[in-house]
Amino acid sequence: MADLTVARLGLTFRTPVVLASGPAGFGAELGEGLGWASVGALTTKTVTDAPRCGNPQPRLLEATGGAINAIGLENPGIDRFLEEILADVLALPTRRIISLAASTPEGLAALIERLDDVEGVDLIEINLSCPNVEGGVIGRSPEAVRRFIGAACGERATPILAKLAGDAGDTVALCEAALHAGAAGLVLINTVRAMRIDRRTGVPFLHRAYGGLSGPAILPIALARVYEARRAFPDALIVGTGGITDLDSLLEMEMAGADLVGIGLGIMIDPGLPERLAGELATWLEARGMDSVEEVVGCAHRGGIGVSGQAARC
Amino acid sequence: MKVRQASRMRATQSGSLFSWSGAALVARESASGYARVRLAVDRPLPSPAAGQYVLIRSADGPALPRAFSPICVEEGEIDLLIKVSGVLREGLARWPIGSRLEVRGPYGAPYADRISLDRAYLLVGGGCGVAPLLAFARAHRGLVAGAVLGFRPTGVERLVPEFPLVIEEVSGVTATAEARRVWQEGQGLIACGPEDMLRAIAVDHAGRPDVYVSLETRIGCGIGACLACSVPTPQGNRRVCRDGPLFALEELPWLI
């Protein structure tokens, strides 16, 4: 059996499949039927200081090759999260990534302090790129990324991941700012700002006009961002997210350089996807005589995969 | 910090709730922008209670599945009433018999779990919102005081032979107006249909006990995780996919 484990930052992930922040809720909603043995880590919904009720309906639109969501960071706030939800997150049979967002660096530092002495939080994701709320895409400039990630990191032991947009600013410059400020890794990319207009009325469907596009339509964008980030930062942990709905897209994301691969819309459409992806990935590796998924990660930067007896190609 | 003991993870979210089952389009009758459609599932699906829904998708359709409340599921066949609008539903009305689809579910709270069972209800439906009310009438005959099921275009009558219909194009009367006329003191009311219709029902029946509305909000995951279908209530946001789709009128003051 090919080895699907990924070891990074002193943590071993059972598989490279990560549930991206949002569609999987806080994990417990998915129950025991999910196939947790196939999940390398769960990322929680983004938690903010105060509770947020999110955007009004509609919150979900069809789009060619995917969907546009405008959930609007609905979450119970840090107090209720700590009191009522965190215990269930920590009990999940997988690695736990807590996603946080704040509108100021000071607010973020205060928020993250609340998790300081909690055992069992493996990673903290700082969401700098939500397109569904006013001012949500904080990480447009390297300076802003530096200030927020710097405030989040401090002397903290829990590794910090910076979640960045795929459609705002120079990706390499933003990643560099995050890593220089102390981030241990990068989550690339968030949903892409998008909209649709109701042809019957001539006005946008969504209250804020914009939402975030996810699904296969954004896979090529996400691949390019992950590829350029991996080329610039060979040693950074990269969680590649955006348009992963099947084995082909997962493989491309790994080949572009993602250590771990986040699924968002994919889990919303098909809760059986993690189990299927892990099984198909193992079969794919074995069919090519590969012992470990690590042989695939970043191979696009090394001239391709080495298939025994054949020319290397991706 | 100390965190409280974890609650036991729900074991009920399993089987058909988590995996898609293949299905074939086996029968269809269309009229006036609506269609009555039957799908035969490859493996047994737990029978949905009235008000519950299934998610359906097609490899030829959009990425997102759609929620449908079946009229019934009998002998492995799902009986649906759909409005022919949107890519998947247009496909269901057009694709050849034998076309392949996928189904998962059922999801949502049965209507009978959300209502008082000590009175009879006037069922008020509009468009494909009629479907769960037909399911309710089949399953809970003793709880039904009457049914006002409305469509705008004529011709739909042959798709829904179960009840006399209120056809606006023929009578000039809407289901809402007819419901206003026939509702009697002491009856409850269950409504399902477009939001404009539900708003009119909410205005007409505000303050009355046991008035319930079933929302057709777009559903994402179906299992209560993604919050795509979240709506505000005085007790905080509720998920249509899991806490609903049926809500007491007083839970949705924004309808008025």
What helical percentage do the residues of chain A reach? 25-40%
Number of helices of chain A: 8
Strand content of chain B: 25-35%
Query: What characteristic shape of chain A results from the CA principal axes?
Result: globular
Largest interface: A-B, 51 and 41 residues
Please state how the strands of the largest beta sheet of chain A are arranged side by side: 3-4-7-8-9-10-15-16
Structural class label of chain B = alpha/beta
Class computed from helices, strands and strand pairing of chain A = alpha/beta
Run of helices and strands of chain B: EEEEEEHEHEHEEHHEHEEEE
Oligomeric state, counting identical vs distinct chains: heterodimer
Q: Outline of chain B, from the CA principal axes? A: globular
Q: In what range is the share of β-strand residues of chain A?
A: 15-25%
Taking Cα atoms only, what radius of gyration of chain A do you get, to the nearest Å? Answer: 19 Å
Q: How confident overall, as mean pLDDT of chain B?
A: 92
What does this 3D model show about the protein?
The complex is a heterodimer of chains A (314) and B (256). Helices cover 28% and strands 19% of the residues of chain A. Chain A is built from eight helices and 16 strands. Chain A has helices at 77-90, 105-113, 142-153, 171-180, 219-232, 247-256, 265-269, 273-287; strands at residues 6-8, 11-13, 17-19, 41-43, 60-63, 66-69, 95-100, 123-127, 160-164, 185-188, 192-194, 197-198, 203-204, 211-214, 237-241, 260-263. In chain A, strands 3-4-7-8-9-10-15-16 form an eight-stranded parallel β-barrel, surrounded by six helices. A four-stranded antiparallel sheet of chain A has the order 5-6-14-11, with no helix packed on it. Chain A has a two-stranded antiparallel ribbon with strand order 1-2. In chain A, strand 1 and strand 2 (11-13) form a beta hairpin. Chain A is globular. The relative contact order of chain A is 0.16. Chain B has six helices and 15 strands. With 256 residues, chain B is of the alpha/beta class. In chain B, helix 5 runs parallel beside helix 6. Residues 10-14 of chain B have low confidence and may be disordered. In chain B, 18% of the residues lie in helices and 30% in strands. The interface between A and B is large, with 51 and 41 residues.
